[in-house]
Write a structure and sequence with these properties.
Blueprint: H1 2-7, H2 17-59, E1 68-71, E2 75-83, E3 86-90, E4 95-99, H3 102-105, E5 109-110, H4 114-157
Helix pairs in contact: 2-4
Length: 158
């Protein structure tokens, strides 16, 4: 009986080449589907960004130089200069720089013109949606690149 135990072959489970090939194929198919989904999402995000950009262009810009404003800390002032999205406000003894549309939309600078406040709130909403969509697009591109790299590694191993 002792001899029979020594002579018995121990089964060692080794993945056959066929099993490895099947798993590789599954991984490649799975990752290819992910890339396709990300590509569709990418197109959707680009369309969204284009639509938001169209909204922004439709809203246009407003010249706010000369408008009286009020700030909680600095008091009353007047917008002295506007350079793109930046404005300079002259308070009694100091000039401070602010960023539009957030400074007015978020209430840091208060103005008495409700129509102008509404404009800057809409402009700020468009701006925030654009930032969110751009971040989502960059994330999508990063994820897609990582999966494509993974596909290449799988192909190299196969």
């Amino acid at each position: 009986m002792g001899l029979d135990l020594e002579e018995e072959e121990k089964e060692v489970k080794v993945a056959s080449p066929r099993t490895r090939t099947k798993r590789t194929k599954e991984l490649l198919e799975e990752n290819s589907k992910k890339v396709e989904e990300l590509s569709n999402e990418h197109e959707s995000l680009e369309k969204e960004i284009s639509a938001i950009d169209g909204e922004d262009k439709t809203l246009g810009d407003k010249d706010v130089v000369g408008i009286d404003i009020e700030h909680e800390k600095f008091g009353k002032g007047k917008i002295a200069k506007q350079d793109g999205k930046y404005i300079e406000v002259q308070f009694n003894d100091v000039v401070k720089k602010f960023v539009l549309p957030g400074a007015i939309a978020d209430g840091y600078l208060r103005i008495n013109d409700e129509e102008l406040v509404d404009f800057f709130k809409k402009k700020n909403d468009v701006h925030n949606r654009m930032l969110k969509a751009q971040v989502a697009l960059r994330s999508n591109e990063f994820t897609s690149d990582r999966i494509k790299e993974e596909i290449e590694k799988i192909k190299e191993k196969a």
